[in-house]
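Subject: complex prediction, re-run

Hi both,

The earlier run crashed halfway through, so I resubmitted it with identical inputs.
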Amino acid sequence: MDRATAASIASFLISAEVEKREVTRITEKYPDMSVEDAYVVQEQLIGIKLEEGHQVVGPKMGLTSQAKMKQMNVEEPIYGYILDYMVVTGGELSMSDLIHPKVEAEIAFILGRDIEGPGVTGAQVLAATEYVIPALEIIDSRYENFRFTLPDVIADNASSSRVVFGSTMKRPTDMDLDLVGVTLSINGEIKDLGAGAAVLGHPANSVAMLANMLARKGLKLKAGQTILTGGITGAVMLKANDFVSARLDGLGTVEFRMKE
Ligand code: OOG
Ligand code: MG
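This time it finished cleanly. Structure:
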C-alpha cells in the first residue's frame, strides 16, 4: 500500500470519528491491506492528529486477553495511541459525542524511565515504572457493529476513543498485579470480572510486548507516558444514563457517568 492511499484511509477514519458515524471496514475495499500496511495507516492518522495540535499521552495495548481476542475474533495483540483529548476529566461523558461506545477495565502504567526494545522483559518494565493506576477505557470502533479484521482495527487506532483514569497510584512492585481482582459494574450490577493475569499472564508483560513491537519501528516507550495494558474484562456496551464503576483490588475504584 502506498503512502497516499494510507493517508486517505487515515483521513477517512478521522472523519468517521469526528462526524460520529460508523463506516464499512477498510478491508472490504482493500482486501490485501496487511498488518504492516495498517500500522502505516495508523502512523498517518496519529500524524494528522499531532498536526491538529493534539498530543500523545502514551501508546496502549489491545486484545491482550483471551476474553478480548475471543470477543473480537482476532488472534494477536495490537497497539494504538491515547491522545490528550481522549482523557476524560470530571467523571462524565456524553453519548452524543460517540458512535457506539463500549467500556473495559484496565491497569495503566506510568513510566519513570524510557524502555527500549528488543528483548524487554516484564521485570524490566516493573523496574522502569513509577506508578500503576486503574483505568476505564471507552472504545468506539469506527466500524459497523465493531466488526473488523486485525488490519482494520489497527488502522482505526485500536478503537481508541476515551479513557477515565482512577486516582489511586501504587508502586507496581508493592503488589502482585497478576492477582489483582477486577469487577466491572454498570448501575450497580456486575457485568464482567477478571484478574490482572488475564493480560498476557501479567500486565507488565503487555508493556514489555509493546516495547518490543515498537522497537521493530525504531521507537521506544518514554518516561512520563501513561500506558494502557489492555482490557482485563470483556468490553461492555454503554447506553445513556449508565453509571460505570470498576473496582480493582488494591487499586481502588474508577468510575464515570454516561450522559445523553
Ligand atoms: C479493539 C480495542 C482493544 C483492548 O483493551 O483490548 C482494546 C476493540 O476491541 O475494538 O483496547
Ligand atoms: Mg483497551
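The mean pLDDT is 97.

- K.
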